[in-house]
Amino acid sequence: MSETKHLDLIAQRVGISLGRVRSTINLLDEGATIPFIARYRKEATGELDEVQIAEIQREHKKLQDLDKRKESVLGSIEEQGKLTDELRQRIAKCFDLTELEDIYLPYKRKKKTRASMARERGLEPLATRIFEQLDHDDPEILAGNYLNDEVPSPSDALQGARDIIAEWVNENEDARNLMRRIYSRSALLTARLVKGKEQEGDKYKDYFNFSEPLSKSPSHRVLAVLRGEEEGFLRVLVLPEDEEDTIFQLGKRFLKGYGACTDQVKTAIQDCYERLLSPSIETESRNAAKERADKEAIAVFAENLRQLLLAAPLGQKRVLGIDPGFRTGCKVVVLDDNGNLQENLAIYPHPPQNDEAGASKTILHLVDKYGIDGIAVGNGTAGRETMDLCRRISFAHPVQIYSVNEAGASIYSASEVAREEFPAHDVTVRGAVSIGRRLMDPLAELVKIDPKSIGVGQYQHDVNQPQLKESLDQVVESCVNRVGVNLNTASKHLLTYISGLGPSIAQNIVEYRAQNGAFKTRNELKKVARLGDKAFEQCAGFLRIREAKNPLDNTAVHPESYPIVEQMAKDLACDVQDLISQAPLRKKIDLKRYVNDKVGLPTLQDILKELEKPGLDPRGTAKAFEFASIFSIEELRPGMVLPGIVDNITNFGAFVDIGLKEKGLVHVSQMANRFIKSPMEVVSLRQEVMVRIVEVDLARKRIQLSMKDV
Fold first, then answer.
1. Residues 85 and 36 in one domain
2. Taking Cα atoms as reference points, which of 628, 608, 524 lies closest to residue 564?
3. Residue 367 domain-assigned (yes or no)
4. Which of 396, 535, 672, 708 is in the most buried spot, having the most CB atoms within 10 Å?
5. What is the pLDDT of residue 3?
């Protein structure tokens, strides 16, 4: 298929004009990243956003993969000497993988089957004659002509003929498409308990006797049922609601008369349905349902991750990080305003030691000694008790106390990244450092952890792992580049996600910085090993240099646009710093004067916005939050109204942290006094909400919440 045809198809599938698709693919093929294209090539793409560019990229790859499969199919058929011009044309015009596989099915090299063994015994002519269904033919008499040592009786011959007919029906495109239509319209997703697994599989008891239309089954139920099957607790089937009618509809495609041969064909069709066609289409339907569920779950996970990564930072402040605990005590670390570890120790304010006085004295001493601005307390075991301890201390200056989601901190603390950063400290110190740094800059710290370990999303271990990784990596890349990073303080792990860099060049930047000191200009990046012109083009706009000689180096203005800004300043008889600091000067700029064949109004408008707020962090600033004075699930009563923070969002609702070990669930039906399709229409991750207790299940440690009329 020609590249032009690819472009036409992509444009149709994504609903974007051919010209914009062509420009986008050209940029991608030249090595441009999605964040770079979305931010700095708006004129070329017609201002496509990252989601649209990623969709074009996915469709382009799909068609490239399809072309590779076509080449393989054509080669296989040609080797068999069965490739006709008509078949070649049909494959060339095929743009759907399922259709391509249907075309190829009759030519696909198969393992030994009942039909192939029947052919080896010379029974294909008999099958052909019976399939004609001539009323005057007697199958028994016809079969008598094919008896030999391998086919000792007419019944053996007829069985072999039916096996061949069953395979023909299975490989018939019309039959397969009919089955697909029936399955898509009426297939039921059914689950039954595996006998003897009642107690072990108790968490799946909602699915012990479960059935619903597959087309209406939401992603979380599909994934839950399939997980139950994978773990051996459920037996799962996907079958048409009325199998008898399905076989009848299939028969209408092939049955021609009422004679004995037709009866043989009818028997073959029944066998085909049960043994070949139904299992094949059931597998297709299950896979399609799983793909849809994966897509939805990955989208939810990706959006949760995006919101978590873009959570408001405290910024460059001095922080006390506390990883709370009871028996093992609380690990306390002191971090300077760049996140460097200054001191670490342990305190034991909770049972069994109960040294609250000593712990308070230690915290007060550290806060005074280092001029601490904020205290970050992990929200795990003993988190609430430690927060309350800190709040009871009378500090000499204002100190805000923050609850920090510590999900994944233990994964980080045992990782190679953590060992590299803190080779002389144990996992407890590293975990406390991670908690403190998450408060200072969630994005910079969370990029060090596998996103699957961060604790947001649903069924992340059950979905397609390569697709999940690709999606989450894109989210991390998007967030890092949207915020931008400080070139002189960013870690190797953060730099890795900057457009055009990657692990190797990121490491080279860190080494250059260590050997030569802080970068003074963006242009100095060109001295970094392996950072050539293309990489510089891709990365420069996303890297910031605080207090740089050229103020534009601390903005999202790309170096390629510096001459435009300098011309603006020259035209107004001022310098660039004046443009940044003086709003009246910026108001005098007539953007149309600076439009040319490469730079249009979208880029110029972005430049002006950046001059108004140079280097502005789009995430805002972290705020402290205080839970109600409730410390155990046993204290909860229906009707109570409590403050909480949205901790996780799924397709079926949102989990809210109300300050207890157990998170409460606000089901999607309890979110608003109106119909909503997705919880994300109402809430976002880390959002502060008021919730009402609806039900408390102490045995299962479950809390049902509502946001309606609160």
1. yes
2. 608
3. no
4. 535
5. 66
Q: What CATH number is given to the structural domain containing 74? A: 1.10.10.650
Q: What is the pLDDT of residues 240-275, one digit of tens each?
A: 999 999 999 999 999 998 899 999 999 999 999 999
Which ranges in 415-500 belong to alpha helices (H)? 416-421, 427-440, 442-446, 465-483, 492-496
Identity at 72, one-letter amino acid code: S
H or E element at residue 539 = helix 533-539
Q: Cα separation of 148 and 238, whole Å?
A: 42
Residue found under tokens 């900057």:
498
Are 167 and 37 in a shared domain?
no
- The residue range of the domain holding 653 is 633-706
d(CA 420, CA 430): 11
Q: Let me know: does 510 contact 495? Beta carbons within 8 Å.
A: yes
Q: What tokens were used for 114?
A: 């009942």
Under a CB-based contact definition with an 8 Å cutoff, are residues 456 and 308 in contact? yes
User: End of a domain among 85, 107, 129?
Assistant: 107
Same domain, 75 and 124: no
Q: Domain containing 646 — which CATH number?
A: 2.40.50.140
Identify the sign of the CA torsion 494, 480, 291, 74: negative
| Confidence band for 677, pLDDT divided at 50, 70 and 90 | confident
Query: How many alpha carbons fall within 13 Å on the CB side of residue 639?
Result: 1
Cα–Cα separations (whole angstroms), residue 618 to 67, 474, 621, 680? 42, 19, 9, 20
Q: What angle do CA 399, 403, 405 make, to 5 degrees?
A: 145
CA distances from 156 to 118, 127, 152, 164, 271 (A): 10, 12, 7, 13, 16
**How many residues does this entry show for the chain?**
710
**Residue 423 CA neighbour count, 13 Å, CB half:** 1
Assigned token pair, 518:
């802080």
pLDDT of 27 higher than 50? yes
Contact predicate 539/508, CB 8 Å: no
Rounded to whole angstroms, what are the CA distances from 358 to 284, 549, 563? Answer: 64, 49, 61
Are residues 188 and 252 both part of a single domain? yes
For residue 120, what are its two tokens?
A: 């080896």
Partners of residue 656 on adjacent β-strands? 646, 664
Contact assessment for residue 298 and residue 467, using Cβ atoms and an 8 Å cutoff: yes
Give the DSSP H/E element, type plus range, for residue 334.
strand 330-335
As a whole number, the mean pLDDT across the chain is 95
- Does 479 reside within a domain? no
What does the pLDDT read at residue 2? 47
Domain co-membership, 142 together with 260: yes
Helices (H), ranges, 187-259: 219-230, 243-252
Stated pTM of the model: 0.89
Query: Does the residue 484 lie in any domain?
Result: no
Element (H, E) at 559: none
Element (DSSP H or E) covering residue 319 = strand 319-323
Nearest to 446 by CA among 233, 686, 217: 686
- Statement to judge: residues 175 and 256 lie in one domain: yes
Question: Which ranges constitute the DSSP H helices of 80-138?
Answer: 85-92, 97-104, 114-120, 124-132
Domain final residue, candidates 257, 282, 300: 300
Cβ neighbors of 524 (< 8 A, separation 6 or more) are none
Q: Which residues pair with 642 in a beta bridge?
A: 691
Give a yes or no: residue 165 inside a domain: yes
Q: Which amino acid is it at 327?
A: R
Domain count, the chain: 3
Asked whether 457 and 408 are in contact (CB, 8 A), the reply is no
Please report, as a single letter, which amino acid is at residue 74.
L
Burial of residue 453 (CB within 10 Å: 0-12, 13-18, 19+) is middle
**Model pLDDT for residues 60-85, shown as the tens digit of each residue:** 999 999 999 999 999 999 999 999 99
